[in-house]
Amino acid sequence: MNRKQDRNNYSRNVVNLGLVSFFTDVSTEMILGILPLFIITELGASKAILGLIEGLGESVGYASRTFSGALSDKIGKRKSLILAGYALSTISKPLFALSSIWTHALAVRVSDRIGKGIRTAPRDALLSDSVKESKVGRAFGIHRSLDQAGAIVGPLLAFALIPLLGVRGIFWFSFIPAIIAVLILLFFVVERSIIPRSESVLSNFRSVLKGRFLFLMIVLTIFSLGAFNFAFILLQGIELGIIASLIPVIYAVINATHTAIGYPAGILSDRIGGEKTLTIGYGLFATVSIIGMVSFSELFIVFVMAAIFGLYLGISETVQRAIVPKYIASEVRGTAYGVYYLFVGISFLIANTVFGTLWENSGVQYAFTYSLIMSGAAIVALLIFIFTKKSYK
User: Fold this and answer.
1) Cα dihedral value 18, 23, 26, 27, nearest 10
2) Which residues contact 96 (CB under 8 A, 6 or more apart)?
3) pLDDT in tens, 216-225
4) 1-196: CATH homologous superfamily?
């Protein structure tokens, strides 16, 4: 294989990894839209148990991301870990159909999230390794848009098939798009060779937690500590009296703008810099927080909030991942992405706990004020990061 063919294979990884994520998200989102109702009504679990299932699943998933990224640097291979992660999720999700008590659902959900955790950091490292640094924003933009397109198709497919298959039938059907994703990964995604790290995994962590990358992680953590989940936008609509049938439409608006902005955000990141583009995303989040602080009765404002929130998500989730390689050498990018997901994941859990507690005990204005303060602090920290002298990665 000559160099040009080699480069083309690597660049095709971007689209192929995007297709893998598309079909995986079709499978996952088919399930997530009906899973809470299934757990509570068919398995008889409480809302607290539902929270435990989701919280434990996400926590274990983020922990898995941290160590799988470091392991991919250690062994000098990405694809094998990516494949293992997708395979575990593919096998796990249909098993919801066999659940008869909530502990079965817990085991399946945790297994699925472990699979996601195993694959995510090595996948992002392979994605960034597959393109030139000047095009990494576009690469993550393409991947984010394809991923989110799956998040739109999945719920629509489930909505169409539930009358024919029932809820448990949807769980079995989810295996089809999931196995398509695994086959694309197996046959069309090309490994990107890197030099294995002779140092220990802990040494890899120490080697990335310094300099500009550590500064960047602090900035992202400040923002993430105030970044509430989309569920609170839906809750805002519910509390304003929006009819139940329109709640999925609000969610669809979030997903639509999220999908639409992913690739343009990647292009803008490559042109003006990821850090500057990220300030736009953080500014959009601050705008949503300001709207949330103001008492209003017009229901259309909720849809405005949803649209802006989706734009923020599309920009931040694309660009935050795209700027990591700028400050990290290629041989430790898996570790760096693992650290990134650890910082953001822990902060995400704290942010939503604090936000929900403030809303419950003090009122919605206090909750949105908290998020506005944190996003404002993050924007200031990011501007300091941009305008201070840049040193080695």
Assistant:
1) -130
2) 31, 35, 38, 105, 108, 168, 171
3) 999 999 999 9
4) MFS general substrate transporter like domains (1.20.1250.20)
